[in-house]
Amino acid sequence: MVTIKNRVVVPLEGAETPPEFITFNGLVEEHVAIVFPQLKPGNMPPLVRVHSECLTGDTFGSLLCDCGPQLHEALSCFSREGGVLLYLRQEGRGIGLYAKLSAYALQKKGLDTFEANRHLNLPEDARSFEPAAQMLKALDVNNIRLLTNNPDKASQLEEYGIGIESIIPTGVYLNPSNRRYLEAKVRHKKHTIPL
Ligand SMILES: Nc1nc2c(ncn2[C@@H]2O[C@H](COP(=O)(O)OP(=O)(O)OP(=O)(O)O)[C@@H](O)[C@H]2O)c(=O)[nH]1
Ligand SMILES: [Zn+2]
């Protein structure tokens, strides 16, 4: 059973009311929840973003993917309205940083993002979103509005017992370097990205 281990208030640039960083007992990886206080009155279920770690995009602003802008969109939206960011340590869709960089090298040779993983004898997508559902339950959040373009996130969360009141797509963060990546997500995994 996953339970809350610790809650620490961390002031963040741009967030008038600082969020809590919450750690958990019972998870295999060190996933963290960042909980922004509800600032908009009403009884809507909280906005939630389940974000998989992307060192290159989230931290260094890589243009090969859309992770960085999606993360910053969620942070600025939650700072204004409130919400829960689950930051999952699932670098490279769960295959890890070195394997993701190997997959990038293969993409330079023409493979798409999913073919590149397979070429490395790795799953196309090694993530399970069960830990996200466990974290939400530990936070007593059982019904959510989910910010994602990935239909698999919503269906896995429902399968693991989280009610999805609505799915809100993120912005479209297209640039010349990530076009093939976004197209592959739409083609293979039915991501809702209007390209
Ligand atoms: N293996 C691999 N992982 C990648 C690649 N590009 C980005 N990632 C990882 O993909 C994960 C993000 O997955 P995405 O498919 O972009 O988006 P998503 O999380 O499924 O869906 P959204 O909720 O709409 O963002 C992060 O963990 C990134 O590190 C790549 O070319 N190969
Ligand atoms: Zn990324």
From TrEMBL:
- The source organism is Pigmentiphaga humi
- One GO CC term of this entry? cytosol
Name of the top EC class for this enzyme: hydrolase
GO BP annotations of the record are: riboflavin biosynthetic process
Q: NCBIfam families attached here?
A: PRK00393.1
* One of the record's GO molecular function terms: GTP cyclohydrolase II activity
Name this polypeptide is given = GTP cyclohydrolase II
**What domain of life does the native source organism fall in?**
Bacteria
Enumerate the spans annotated as GTP cyclohydrolase II domain: 24-168
The record's annotation in PANTHER family points to: 3,4-DIHYDROXY-2-BUTANONE 4-PHOSPHATE SYNTHASE (PTHR21327:SF18), GTP CYCLOHYDROLASE II-RELATED (PTHR21327)
Q: What is its EC number?
A: 3.5.4.25
Where does the signal peptide begin and end?
A: none
Tell me where the transmembrane regions lie: none
KW Metal-binding (keyword) present: yes
Q: What reactions does this protein catalyze?
A: GTP + 4 H2O = 2,5-diamino-6-hydroxy-4-(5-phosphoribosylamino)-pyrimidine + formate + 2 phosphate + 3 H(+)
**Keywords of the record:** GTP-binding, Hydrolase, Metal-binding, Nucleotide-binding, Riboflavin biosynthesis, Zinc
Cofactor(s) this protein cannot do without = Zn(2+)
This protein's pathway? Cofactor biosynthesis; riboflavin biosynthesis; 5-amino-6-(D-ribitylamino)uracil from GTP: step 1/4
Zinc among keywords: yes
Question: Pfam families, from UniProt?
Answer: GTP_cyclohydro2 (PF00925)
